[in-house]
Write a structure and sequence with these properties.
428 residues, alpha/beta, Rossmann fold, 2 domains, seven-stranded mixed β-sheet, five-stranded mixed β-sheet, 15 helices, 47% helix, 16% strand
Length: 428
């Protein structure tokens, strides 16, 4: 037992601290901007941090205590917006980082939101559906002092899903005494969710990839090899959309490892296999690979769509991709960024590439507030319009200042928040 625990601790120590990564990126970006030092210092800090410890009754009658967080990084541009994740790896620093990245993401794509994030330390796979409902409703009740359609609007993230968002919406609505669909996004369509929301993040990753390939001069999509780490909501939908467009997805992975076929995978068959087996390992006609091996496979485009801190100074020298499109939040450390840049590997950063989810969450919020709903074609049209506009803004900033796409995206976002803060002024 002691050996196993030590091995776990060693593994955890090897994961870069997400908040330190977020702050390092921020500190690099502001060096290129003409912003007052007081504003720079203000934007480094989360506006508020909320920690809750709450009981959940298990199916066998035991009461177990759980810890949850909600961090609001910024409310300068509007209500705070961000997902809720259920994972045993949740830490306050991770939630702080994700909230900060949400601020920059919303600002970059010009949504009227600030950034937030939430999390509960729990393995959702270890709980029954009834236990998950009790946990979600109790956590939501703890957040009610913070939540409202005009203050803080949660959404799904790793380990959570549309059903859980429906429970949060219902818990809030029962508390205030009337139905409030706009208090949360990522809900099922039959209770005010938006068409296209589930696919939005993964689809947006591929929209950005296609634009990047076009700008880099790649036109023969049948020969573009794509490797995707992560086969959850983001990775699976990214793989499906890329396959539908005619690109060759040669490898995918989940938390337990992945599969590789240099001639391309039949993604609809892979998704069916995964739905039936809850893993990718041993998929017929493909070789098994570890997640570490997957990241350094030969390919044209690598899409890290799993956890933060996956591309580090240790594996960046061995990455063979010509382009990286970040589906996950914070998958690349600053040290790895420098190595990739020196090697000429083009990178489309997370706050641009995976912004599709929050963009369609915004559409859902708007539809709920107006009680006027769009068809899927309109959702996808507007999603592509905003992503391409944001890509153009980032590319122009990169060219103007001679910086990487990550630096340009951060600079554009930070500048927008900073200007809004200066216009509003410091209260009181």
């Amino acid at each position: 037992m002691v050996v196993a625990l030590n091995n776990v601790n060693h593994a955890l120590e090897a994961i870069p601290n997400a908040y330190q990564t977020a702050l390092a990126q921020y500190d690099r970006a502001v060096q290129h901007l003409d912003i007052d030092d007081n504003v720079i210092e203000y934007m480094r800090w989360p506006r508020r941090e909320f920690t809750v410890n709450f009981p959940v009754r298990r199916d066998d009658g035991r009461v177990e205590m759980f810890t949850g967080y909600r961090v609001h990084h910024s409310t300068v541009l509007g209500p705070s917006k961000g997902g809720i994740r259920y994972s045993l790896d949740v830490t306050l620093d991770e939630v702080r980082a994700l909230a900060m990245w949400m601020t920059w993401k919303c600002a970059l794509v010009q949504l009227p939101y600030g950034g937030a994030k939430g999390g509960v330390l729990v393995d959702p796979k270890s709980m029954s559906q009834a236990e998950l409902e009790r946990l979600t409703r109790r956590y939501a009740s703890e957040l009610i002092p913070l939540m409202s359609p005009h203050a803080d609007i949660p959404a799904p993230d790793m380990g959570t899903n549309p059903q859980m968002m429906a429970w949060i919406m219902d818990t809030y609505s029962m508390t205030v005494g009337y139905s409030v669909p706009a208090v949360v996004t990522g809900k099922p369509v039959n209770v005010g969710g938006s068409l296209g929301r589930n696919e939005a993040t993964g689809r947006g990753v591929i929209v950005c990839m296609v634009e990047a390939l076009k700008r880099q001069g790649y036109t023969d999509k049948e020969n573009i090899r794509i490797v995707i780490q992560g086969f959850g909501n983001v990775g699976s939908h990214a793989a499906a959309y890329a396959h539908d467009l005619g690109y060759k997805v040669t490898a995918v992975s989940d938390v337990n490892g992945g599969i590789h076929n240099p001639n391309g995978l039949d993604i609809p068959a892979v998704r069916k296999y995964y739905a039936e087996n809850r893993m990718l390992k041993d998929f017929p006609g493909a070789d098994n690979v570890t997640n570490a091996e997957l990241l350094v496979l030969p390919c044209d485009v690598l899409v890290p769509a799993a956890m933060e801190g996956q591309i580090t100074r240790n594996n960046a020298p061995n990455i063979k991709a010509k382009m990286i499109v970040e589906g996950a939040n914070g998958p690349t450390t600053p040290e790895a960024d420098d190595i990739l840049d020196d090697r000429g590997i083009y990178l489309v950063p997370d706050i641009l590439a995976n912004a599709g989810g929050v963009i369609v969450s915004y559409f859902e919020w708007v539809q709920d507030l107006q009680a006027f709903f769009w068809d899927e074609e309109e959702v996808y049209r507007q999603l592509q319009r905003i992503l391409l506009r944001s890509y153009d803004t980032t590319a122009n900033m990169a060219e103007k200042h001679g910086v990487t796409m990550r630096m340009a995206a951060q600079m554009s976002a930070i500048e927008r928040v900073g200007k809004a803060l200066m216009t509003r002024g410091f209260y009181p």
